[in-house]
Amino acid sequence: MSNWTDIGPLDAVRRRGARIIKAPGQDLAVFRTIDDQVFALVNACPYREGPLSEGIVHGTLVTDPLYNWVISLETGEAQGADEGRVDTFPVKVEGGRILLDTSSIYQRQAA
């Protein structure tokens, strides 16, 4: 069961940028691509937890600003020879507003 929570207007996140959302026990990074796709991931690279929200967004990928790991915004998987992944969360845009499925955050905390 989804619990869609409005986290703000799409325009609050610049294209090829990110916004940090505080969630219980972790920070999430909400990314916006050049073509207005939106993705939500844990704001920590799988390698030494670099802040992904400060990375470079290119296509549906983000490059960690500290260690240059490339992470898929769609799957959270590290690309290339690097191995690891970060959790992703359902997010969508409706009527110019970003909606995050907060039930998925709480389900993962309980597991």
Largest sheet: 4 strands, antiparallel
Radius of gyration: 13 Å
Give me the number of helical elements: 1
Structural class: mainly beta
- How much of the residues is beta strand, in percent? 35-45%
> Could you list the spans in which at least 5 consecutive residues all have pLDDT below 50?
none
Would you give an account of this structure?
The chain has 111 residues and is mainly beta. Helices cover 8% and strands 41% of the residues. The protein contains one helix and ten strands, in the order E-E-E-E-E-E-E-E-E-E-H. The protein has one helix at residues 102-110; strands at 4-9, 17-23, 26-32, 38-42, 56-58, 61-63, 70-72, 88-89, 91-94, 97-101. The strands form three sheets. Strands 2-3-4-8 form a four-stranded antiparallel beta sheet. Strand 6 and strand 7 form a beta hairpin. The longest helix is centred in the C-terminal third of the chain and has 9 residues, at 102-110. The two termini are 16 Å apart.
